[in-house]
Write a structure and sequence with these properties.
With 70 residues, this protein is mainly β. Helix content is 0%, strand content 26%.
């Protein structure tokens, strides 16, 4: 266990709300993008795909936004 990590704020898995630029890779449970809080750490999982090709560059692309109070 990581020192100073209170587990009081742990959450269950929460489904992420993707931006309009992305889709879930397929609808199996293992692909749906989700996140959870464990102490002071946020864990992410899932598989997504862009709706259109993303050209390689240094501009950030928003996939989803975590809530401020996670």
């Amino acid at each position: 266990m990581i020192p100073n990590c209170k587990r009081d704020n742990d959450t269950a898995w929460i489904e992420a709300r993707l931006t309009n630029s992305f889709n879930v890779y397929n609808n199996t449970d293992s692909c749906i993008p989700t996140y959870r809080r464990i102490g002071r750490m946020i864990e992410l999982k899932g598989i997504i795909k862009p709706k259109k090709k993303i050209e390689g560059n240094t501009s950030p692309v928003e996939i989803f936004t975590l809530p401020e109070r996670i």
